[in-house]
Design a protein that fits this description.
This protein has about 425 residues and is an alpha/beta fold. The longest helix has about 30 residues, at about 200-230. The protein has 16 helices and 14 strands. It folds into two domains: about 1-195, Rossmann fold, CATH 3.40.50.720; about 255-425, Rossmann fold, CATH 3.40.50. The chain is globular. The strands form three sheets. A six-stranded parallel sheet has the order 3-2-1-4-5-6, sandwiched between helices. Helix 4 (about 95-105) runs parallel beside helix 5, helix 8 (about 200-230) crosses helix 10 and helix 8 (about 200-230) runs parallel beside helix 11. It has helices at about 10-20, 35-40, 50-60, 95-105, 125-140, 160-165, 175-185, 200-230, 235-240, 265-275, 280-305, 330-340, 355-360, 385-390, 395-400, 415-420, and strands at about 1-5, 25-30, 65, 80, 115-120, 145-150, 170-175, 195, 310-315, 345-350, 365, 380, 405-410, 425. The site of uridine-5'-diphosphate-xylopyranose has 19 residues, from helix 8.
Length: about 425
């Protein structure tokens, strides 16, 4: 089949490469010339394990092409995927400007014949109806036939390639049998349970999935506060709770709250979407509140233990390991607050330093080496659980730190071991161990 992906972020680029790998002819359309130039040369722009190799393989084979021009691809395509961002607007709602903007452009280039316009972007319920209305309003020829479909994407950053080759489920929401059959055909080489449903259900499924994940994390974070106040160990509690097969252990890891480009934005959007439909939004508001409180409790621990004005070291800046993405990362919030309190900061991250530099410029000090970042610091904060921190050289950590205190926002060390090594060790939900 011939496909066009509009958008080359984590969803658009990864999915495009995977479908190209299965032998489809794939176009990826963007609007920034410098980015399209890099992509044409095999530079994926984003850091995502396995992506560069996949991109280069399909470029060499001529199965994937990058363009800035709708004329190059829309009229050739059997299926057009909208995979542009739907960022959080200032009031928390999903900003659909890009979705509607690209829809306008698609509609003036559709071919005489049949095309499916499938939305992969996370969009509020009824958005695909609006996409259909925009296209209907703009098309001029009676020979143009099209259907819309909602095909939400569930890939995670850091494992996006693997998730796309091996998804748990493929959700296809459309009211048209023709569109459903074409989308099922396209997905044939990919395993994973198929859920075919109507458009509204598919649109809501994506929000429901992310809200469930966020709920589990906030649940764990609420119990970490409860544990700190009662001398309990949240990790033991969550392990025991998670052993119940009906619940499962995943996403019950407490810490400094969820970040990234999806969970915070989607929970915020759900507050608005549910309210607009007269549905109680209090669960989603609480998830958000607990998420912010997790970061604030972490900051309070630092303030209570490190003299104001001291220099502090931070290990880990990306919103989770194996990505350079810092969107809504807890680290950004924590750095900003610590700077406001008057602390000086040395920061280290294996891949996201450049992105953080763009935010904080010369307000903090950046280090390419995790141990050198410790020099003259009155404490170490761990904000992302990169593997390389898990077996750190504690002799060096002790030697360089002025104060041997570690604030672990991700519970990567055993508190007893840290105590025996001579550290004051403050983690999440198990401080009394
Ligand atoms: C998420 C969804 O998992 C994915 O299905 C969807 O398509 C996009 O949004 P992603 O944003 O890549 O994926 O990250 P995810 O792995 O879900 O982690 C989100 C945040 O939650 C991270 O900041 C992570 O550190 C945090 N988290 C995760 C916890 O604090 N505790 C956990 O137990 C799990």
């Amino acid at each position: 089949m011939t496909l066009t992906f509009i958008g080359h972020g984590y969803v658009g680029l990864v999915t495009a490469c995977v479908f190209a790998d299965f032998g489809n002819e794939v176009y990826v359309l963007g609007h920034t010339p410098e980015k399209i130039d890099k992509l044409k040369k095999g530079n994926p722009i984003i850091y995502e394990p396995g992506l560069e190799e996949l991109l280069k393989r399909n470029l060499i084979a001529g199965r994937i092409k990058f363009t800035l021009d709708y004329k190059d691809c829309i009229s050739k395509s059997d299926i057009i995927f909208i995979a542009v961002g739907t960022p959080m607007s200032s009031n928390g709602e999903a900003d659909l400007t890009s979705v509607f903007d690209v829809t306008e452009k698609i509609s003036s280039h559709l071919k005489n014949g049949y095309t499916v316009v499938a939305c992969k972007s996370t969009v509020p319920v009824e958005t695909n109806d609006k996409i259909r209305d925009i296209i209907n309003k703009n098309i001029t020829s009676k020979k143009i036939e099209f259907d819309v479909a909602s095909c939400p994407e569930f890939l995670r950053e850091g494992s996006a390639v693997n998730d796309t080759f091996n998804p748990d489920r493929i959700v296809i929401g459309t009211d048209s049998k023709r569109a459903k059959d074409l989308l099922l055909e396209l997905h044939k080489p990919i395993n994973g349970k198929r859920i075919t449903t109507n458009i509204a259900s598919a649109e809501i499924t994506k929000y429901a999935s992310n809200a469930m994940l966020a709920t589990k994390i906030s649940f764990a974070n609420l119990f970490s506060e409860f544990s700190e106040k009662t001398g309990a160990d949240v990790e033991a509690i969550m392990t025991a709770v998670g052993l119940d097969k009906r619940i499962g252990r995943s996403f019950l890891y407490p810490g400094i709250g969820f970040g990234g480009s999806c969970l915070p934005k989607d929970v915020n959007a759900l507050v608005h979407i549910t309210e607009q439909h007269g549905v109680d939004s209090s669960l989603f508001k609480s998830i958000n509140k607990i998420n912010i409180q997790a970061r604030e409790r972490f900051i309070d621990k630092v303030i209570s233990n490190v003299k104001l004005g001291s220099r502090i070291c931070i290990w880990g800046l990306s919103f989770k390991p194996n990505t350079d993405d810092i969107r809504e990362a807890p680290s950004i919030y924590i750095i900003r607050e610590l700077l406001n309190k008057g602390y000086k900061l040395n920061v280290y991250d294996p891949v996201s330093l450049d992105n953080v530099k763009m935010v904080f410029k010369d307000k903090i000090s950046y280090f390419e080496n995790q141990y050198k970042a410790l020099k003259d610091c009155a404490g170490l904060c761990i904000l992302t659980e990169w593997n390389q921190f898990k077996e750190a050289d504690f002799k060096k950590v002790k030697k360089y730190l002025k104060n041997v205190i570690i604030f672990d926002g991700r519970n990567i060390y055993d508190p007893r071991r840290m105590k025996s090594l001579g550290f004051k060790y403050l983690s999440v939900g198990r401080s009394l161990l």
